[in-house]
Amino acid sequence: MTDEATKTSADRRPRSLFDPEIVGPALIESVRKLDPRVQVRNPVMFVVEIGAVITTVAWLIQAFGGSPLGGGHEPAWFTFSITVWLWLTVVFANLAEAMAEGRGRAQAASLRAMRSETTARLRDGGERPACVAELVMHLRPDETGA
Description:
This protein is mainly alpha-helical. It has helices spanning 3-6, 20-32, 36-39, 43-63, 76-117, 132-138, and strands spanning 119-121, 127-129. The chain has a domain at 18-118.
């Protein structure tokens, strides 16, 4: 049994949301999720990403002296600000999703480690592995607490 397994639940602190072990891979994954083939699985963010691409093209046209798309009269700075907001929406939505997935993977790994390192103390003072399948197979009616 390792030191980690002997800690009580009060000794274990939840990982910070901004833990570098979660944020680093999440940043990389959020950039990978910008691929439209991945983004199409999330229809709302896919539409936002398409809007961001269109407004980026519209801003570039305006920045190089063209007129606004759609025949409007909005200035280039306005198109640029809309473009920035749309890209920030897509990137931060991807980042939040990637961080949630990373935290889920970390929690699953923690539960797997706990399952393999935890022992159950029985009423008679004995100990057995705490794997549920093994406990169920070995329990006697007087050990169930019923």
